[in-house]
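Support reply, case 0932

Customer input (verbatim):
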Amino acid sequence: MSDLSGNRSMPSLTRSVVTGAIGFCLISLVVFATVAFGERWMYQRLSFAGAYLTWTVLFILLGGAVLGSLVVGRWRLPKFYLLYGLAFLLYAVGWVAAYFKLRGGAGEWLGSLAGSLLMALVFAAGFKQMCSVPKFVLILFVANSIGYFLGSALNDSVGGQGGMLLWGVSYGFFLGAGIGVVLHYSQAGPSS
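Our regenerated output:
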């Protein structure tokens, strides 16, 4: 949507949620498909760290294009790739570090919190909305946790490649919706 001067107007909250949820869901499905069908191969060829780095890069490259469509003004592509890339990279590092430190359920919950906190801080700083950090952390933590733990339960219930794909769908849908909400509020200002 554009105004008469050709500038794009900020997407509505609904559009931000729907675009984030569906777009990131499809991206997550692609990434999780590489896990479902190629995890062993990736571990053998790329190493454990290399596989995780590859999955993170895929989320950044594909996610930046979809989520960048929700951004107007100075953070429009390609600058948004830098902001989102840093946000997702720190999210992944925080998540993985917390998970491998504690393992199990406690590591997953701490990973969800650490990753959400780091992503929220990057978006808040990038959009100059530091007063919104607590709100952004809450939004991302709830969305991330629902997507991750629902997906994990689906994976455990269905198993195999189908279960892994369902995990990707759940994770992507909910985290994408949360990121869409945060991007909307990042641009709408602190009074939103």
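We compared this against your earlier run and they match. Two observations from our side: The radius of gyration is 16 Å. Residues 13-186 form one domain. Please reopen the case if you see a mismatch on your end.
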